[in-house]
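FYI - complex with zinc ion, inputs then prediction.
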Amino acid sequence: METLYITHPLCKMHEMGSGHPECPERLDAISDQLLASGLINYLQSTQAQAPATLQALKRVHLGDYLDRLSAQSPIEGYREIDADTSMNRHSLQAAGFAAGAVIQAVDAVMAGHSQTAFCAVRPPGHHATQSRALGFCFYNNIAVAAAHALAAHNLKRVAIIDFDVHHGNGTEAIFAGDERVLMCSFFQHPLFPGSGVDDPAANMVNIPVPAYTTGEAIRALVREKWLPRLQAHAPEMVFISAGFDAHREEDMAQLNLVESDFAWLTEQIVAVADRHAQGRVISSLEGGYNLSALARSVVAHVRALAKL
Ligand SMILES: [Zn+2]
């Protein structure tokens, strides 16, 4: 079965001002490289059909927060949410379709249309908490989708893998203590947002690593700390917060991963899903700001998802 590839034109309409690294060109770089590599021919490409519903968003976000965000949406120009995060008139809709795309991926995979999916969406999501937009994120796309899988498809156990170079503080805040969800991540520390190191909940497998950690060291840590926990949890669906800013060419952080490391990580995740989750893996774009490294890494990731 072909891997599902979901995006939406509105995801390129959200932008936060010239020179901002979380820019629409990220999605162009990805689609260009999927085309140039020929990989696109082996994927089932589609557009997100609908934004996430209020019901779906409210599984992980507070109603007050969602109301506040709507009220802040500007008619023109930019509305600053924090020092790095702002909204234009398309941002809220883009965020809705980004979360909607990941929900759609869950539904399609549960219906057996595909085993795996990659959502090329923005704004990203993993820094957004129940009640706060942060670090370029508004709705926590992967958390909304995981909560949807638990509530709408009656799954009992899911796993969330976050290999973005930044700690997924929002996803952790949403699921800490929820034993249905096992979250595994590594992240550079110290680095924004600085969380994830102080006594995380038992369902959080956090691996803070120092700057300049190599891909080889990451692989050893993943084998030692993630894989036994994932096998024991036996998730029925595996989610990936797929950030590619741990790449060695990335200026925003200082880890030393390359394309083959992202491919290896993805292969490990797919193997866990094949064993426990009928192969079901839902991946959604988070960070990755060096356009060339991002696009090459996504190709490596999607190729491994699709077993090509
Ligand atoms: Zn990141």
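Residues 164-166, 243, 245, 286-287 surround zinc ion (CB under 6 Å). The chain has nine helices and ten strands.
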